[in-house]
Design goal:
Low-confidence stretches: none
Order of helices and strands: EHEHEHHEHHHEHEHHHEEE
Number of helices: 11
Shape: globular
CATH topology of the largest domain: Rossmann fold
CATH architecture of the largest domain: 3-Layer(aba) Sandwich
Oligomer: single chain
Structural class: alpha/beta
Mean pLDDT: 97
């Protein structure tokens, strides 16, 4: 497995793959690799000849500097895990090479980025869209795998590819959960044992909404009220719990099986997001 640290090395690696006639699958991450990330690697490996994992903690997508500073980092451990999963190369660029002094060019996503995470994390999706476009321009992968865990981000990336005509296929990867239902996230490492137990409120709230939907309730305001009861008496503080159209991400009045539940909550100092189709599956 190659460790690539700069654009010159990346271009040589990419040229070698092209000479060999091998396709490349990209898995973008911010490191702190866990089983959710390795599931993306496995999915990419099923559809591409080689897999490159990008590891870059992108300061531009953090609206809270303290959150950026304490984001988990273990590049050596990450590389050891990825090598065991057959990754061809890991790209760990230097921040000064990505955002060199005098950097000025940013991508502002549209309506998909306004609500939900866009409201609670101003500027977040500007940073995401810019770094994703930069990745695609630098690496030129045939495909890239993004997890459904960050569903709003996934939709913004899909729209970015369509709007800017990037020649890359976006592969959706399902959410990976611990046996108790908590969605895997690098931020879970920041939870104490007690906080982790409280964090289970988040998937429980989704489950309540799904159960009510399967019992026949279709009104989204009623489904949200039922789900929000999960937070009563807990240390988990919801920021939003909404049911949206899975394409436009706009709230709907009546849910169908494909409508998407989006939820964000804070447990202590840790912010967690989760989502699921209201109809399950």
């Amino acid at each position: 497995m190659e460790i690539i640290n700069n654009i010159t090395e990346l271009r040589r690696y990419r040229a070698d793959l092209r000479r060999q006639g091998r396709s490349l699958g990209l898995v973008p991450t911010m490191g702190a690799i866990h089983s959710g990330h390795t599931s993306l690697v496995e999915l990419a490996a099923q559809q591409a000849d080689a897999v490159l994992v990008w590891i870059f903690v992108n300061r531009a997508q953090f609206n809270d500097q303290s959150d950026f500073e304490r984001y988990p980092r273990d590049f050596k451990g990450d590389c050891e895990i990825l090598q065991k999963h057959g990754v061809s190369a890991v790209l760990i660029p230097d921040e000064q090479e990505i955002f060199q002094p005098g950097y000025q060019t940013w991508i502002e996503p549209g309506e998909l980025a306004v609500d939900w995470e866009g409201k609670f994390r101003p500027g977040h999706f500007r940073g995401v869209a810019t770094i994703v476009a930069m990745m695609f321009a630098m690496i030129e992968p045939e495909l890239a795998v993004f997890g459904e865990k960050d569903f709003q981000q996934l939709r913004i990336v899909e729209q970015l590819v369509a709007d800017l005509k990037f020649n890359v296929e976006i592969i959706r990867a399902p959410i990976v959960r611990d046996p108790d239902g908590l969605a895997l996230s690098s931020r879970n490492q920041l939870l104490s044992d007690d906080e982790r137990n409280e964090a289970l409120t988040v998937p429980r709230s989704i489950k309540l909404a799904q159960e009510a939907f399967l019992s026949g309730e279709r009104r989204t305001n009623a489904l949200c009220r039922i789900a929000e009861k999960a937070f009563n008496g807990t240390a988990a503080k919801p920021e939003y719990f909404v049911i949206v159209d899975p394409v436009t991400l706009k709230e709907t009045e009546i849910a169908d099986a494909n409508s998407r539940v989006l939820v964000a909550a804070r447990v202590g100092s840790v912010r967690l997001i989760d989502n699921a189709a209201i109809g399950g599956g």
